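note to self — DONT lose this again. spent like an hour looking for the file last time. sequence + predicted structure for the chain T wanted, 322 res
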Amino acid sequence: MFNRRQFMGTAVASAAVYAAGSFTPMWAQNAPNFGTPTLPSPGFRRMKLGNVEIIALVDGIARRPLGEEFVANAPLAEVRAALTAQNLSPDFVDVPFTPFLVVAGNRRILMDTGLGEFGGATTGKLLENMAAAGFKPEDIDTVLISHYHGDHINGLRNKAGDFVFSKAKVMVPAAEHAFWMDEARAAAAPAGRKGAFDNVRRTFVGMPDTMLQQFQPGAELAPGVRAVAAHGHTPGMSMFEVTSGGQAFTFLADLTNIPALFARNPDWSVTFDMDPVMARQTRRAVFERIVASKGMVGGFHFPFPALGQMVAAGNGYSFQAA
């Protein structure tokens, strides 16, 4: 069990580590000033899906210089050219963070939680935008966690160690939980990943058994809400599929990071993919299925409103916002 000093020490460290969803904050220490990303206002967008409502909730946007490390298997010149061709800056990338809320009857189901109090000045806006959309933390009855990277779990607890969504059941992929909570694996982790293991413990150690519930791929998590395995980015990452009235919406989580790069070029690997080969295979298989079905999608790192459809484009796919 963490005492308060240990909890806060880990929280402060994880804030630096996860300011842009990264395992290593070294890029930020001597970064040139590319200005501050503009946050959308209002910071939410609603969409009807059959008899339910899907709400994209902006947690924030982090701007990071574009370096050789961001796309792990493509030359920087090629990456810059891809951005320029889409009228985006070749010098930096904006990484949005967008959880989603499913409103189904009296159910309020939140998908991922953002950076909470542990990110930079342009993040941690989830509760503010949730309030603007008409919801309080205590309204949430279920939190679905796609995977254990800090930008997806840090909003579960505040700096005081309190559970932000105190009335919610927190549902997590069993394979993901097993990987990150393994003591031997944590002890053997390279220095650049130890902070991630510590951050998982900061978040989940002390969470009551009545709150934490693990699920398997394919499980029905709520009526009309199903877990879909999407391993590769992390060992146990899950997407979430919502169906209602013959319509379907898939929360893609981190199936792809910035779609202008990694959907248009599905064989490129973002630096955060833990198993790049599996991540690429998963990305192509999922996009092929979703394009064929013409279903709606939501992407955690997609540009606002982060809701829309995927369509085929050249050797990859393009995101068309709703």
